[in-house]
Amino acid sequence: MGQYFKIVNLTKKQFIDIGGLGENNKFSGLGSGLNGVVLGRLIASPGQWRNAPGLLKLYGDPEEHDVYVGMWAGDRIVVPGDYDEPKNYSLFPSTYVPEENLYFHVSDNPEYEDITDKVIV
Known about the structure:
By secondary structure, the protein is of the alpha+beta class. 23% of the residues lie in helices and 10% in strands. The protein is built from 4 helices and 4 strands; from the N terminus they run E-E-H-H-E-H-E-H. Strands 3-1-2-4 form a 4-stranded mixed β-sheet. A hairpin with a 4-residue loop joins strand 1 and strand 2. It is globular. The model has no long low-confidence stretch (mean pLDDT 78).
């Protein structure tokens, strides 16, 4: 069967469901295709884009869009799997219960926002 993964921003309490992008959300699909492009744009340093208004228009401007280039830059990003041991993330968010698997924790916790649909608009 295999392990499934999500991309989680612990700082902003947001996540991307790779399967929701229509892609392989197993280990072999991590970082390839759309999920790799999306993650790259989210964590790119925003300073790179300030002098390129055309790129801001294409990839999102913080003044106008919910999702934009660099919005995750400097944040704590993890990629938990559904088979992960709960103890692997005990150092992370204060709302996280160490007995829970982080993959399921973010899906079931209303504090976490699923931004999958927003990154593919």
